[in-house]
Design brief:
two-stranded antiparallel ribbon; mainly alpha; 65% helix; globular
C-alpha cells in the first residue's frame, strides 16, 4: 500500500520527537556514569528515563511505519527493533565510555541494512521503511542499554556480564623455612549477572511490549498524537517499575528503592493523564453512528 497517514493535526512533528527522544536517551544513559564518579549507585534511575524517552520516540516512529497498512505490522516492527537493537547494544557496550554513541551508530547501520532488504529485496515498497527501521533499531538498542544501566548501574560490558567475584585458594607448596604458601585467584561469576542470568531477556520483552502497545491500542479514526505518546510514557514507566525491582538484586536496597519510587510516581502521573486524554477524545467523538441491521433485499 502507498497510502500515507500524516502526523496528528496540530501536534509535534516527527523530526522534533526524534531529536528530543534521541538526545534524552543518550544523555540519560551517560548520566548513569555518575555512579562511577561518585562511588554510589543512586543515579541509576537516569537509565530508566533514557529508555522511556526512546520508547516515547519509537512509538511515533511505529505509527509512521505501520500507517502503510492495517496496523498488523506493529508487533513485527517492535520485534525487529529489539532484535537488531540487542545486537547493537551488546556489541556497543564493549567500547567503554563511548558505548552509548557506538551503540547508536551500530544500530543505525543494522536498521538500514534490514530496511533496505525489506524494501528492495522483499519488495515491500514502503517509502519510510529504511529510515523507520533505522530509527527503530536505535530505539531498541537505547531502550535495552538504558534499562540495563538502570538495573546494574553501568553501561559497560563487564558490569553486565560479571555478577560477582569468588576467590579460589590453592596450595602452592612449602616456602623457605617450611611455611605453606597459597595461590589466591579471583574468578568471575557469570551466572548471577544481567546477561548470564537472562535478566536481559526480560528487559528485551519489557521494552518491546512497551514500544508496540501504544499505537496498537490507540490506532483508529480518532487517534490523537498526545494520547498515543502519553500511553507510550505510561507503558515505558510500567516497564521501568519491573526493572527497578530487578535492580534491587544488582544494586542493593537504597538504589533499588529510589528506582522504584521514581518509576511508580512517573507511571501513576502518566497513566492518570492518559485516562484523562482518553475521556477527552471519547467525549469529542460525536460522528459515530449505530450499526444498522440489514436483511432481505436491503
Amino acid at each position: 500500500m502507498t497510502a500515507k497517514m500524516e502526523a496528528s493535526e496540530g501536534k509535534m512533528p516527527h523530526n522534533k520527537l526524534l531529536t528530543y527522544g534521541l538526545v534524552i536517551a543518550v544523555v540519560g544513559t551517560y548520566l548513569t556514569y555518575l555512579n562511577v564518579l561518585t562511588g554510589v549507585a543512586v543515579f541509576s534511575f537516569f537509565g530508566g528515563i533514557a529508555a522511556v524517552a526512546a520508547i516515547w520516540w519509537g512509538s511515533d516512529t511505529i505509527k509512521h511505519l505501520c500507517s502503510y497498512g492495517l496496523g498488523t505490522g506493529v508487533p513485527s516492527a517492535g520485534m525487529i527493533a529489539f532484535g537488531s537493537g540487542a545486537i547493537a547494544m551488546i556489541v556497543g557496550t564493549k567500547f567503554g565510555i563511548a558505548s552509548p554513541i557506538v551503540t547508536v551508530i551500530l544500530a543505525a547501520i543494522l536498521g538500514a541494512v534490514i530496511g533496505y532488504t525489506a524494501n528492495n529485496i522483499i519488495n515491500m515498497n514502503i517509502p519510510v521503511m529504511i529510515m523507520s527501521l533505522m530509527e527503530l533499531a536505535i530505539v531498541g538498542a537505547l531502550t535495552m542499554l538504558g534499562f540495563a544501566s538502570m538495573a546494574t548501574g553501568s553501561f559497560e560490558f563487564n558490569q553486565l556480564i560479571i555478577g560477582s567475584m569468588s576467590l579460589s585458594v590453592e596450595n602452592a607448596g612449602a616456602a623457605a623455612g617450611g611455611a605453606q604458601t597459597f595461590l589466591v585467584t579471583a574468578i568471575p561469576q557469570y551466572g548471577n549477572s544481567l546477561i548470564g542470568g537472562a535478566a536481559l531477556a526480560v528487559i528485551f520483552f519489557l521494552g518491546a511490549l512497551a514500544l508496540q502497545h501504544p499505537f496498537n491500542a490507540c490506532l483508529g479514526p480518532n487517534e490523537s498524537q498526545d494520547r498515543t505518546l502519553m500511553l507510550a510514557l505510561s507503558c515505558g514507566f510500567l516497564s521501568m517499575i519491573v526493572v527497578a525491582v530487578i535492580s534491587l538484586v544488582f544494586l542493593g536496597l537504597l538504589a533499588g528503592v529510589i528506582n522504584l519510587v521514581i518509576s511508580l510516581i512517573a507511571w501513576f502521573y502518566c497513566y492518570k493523564t492518559y485516562i484523562d486524554l482518553s475521556k477527552r477524545d471519547a467525549y469529542a467523538w460525536l460522528d459515530s453512528k449505530p450499526i444498522i441491521e440489514v436483511g432481505g433485499d436491503q
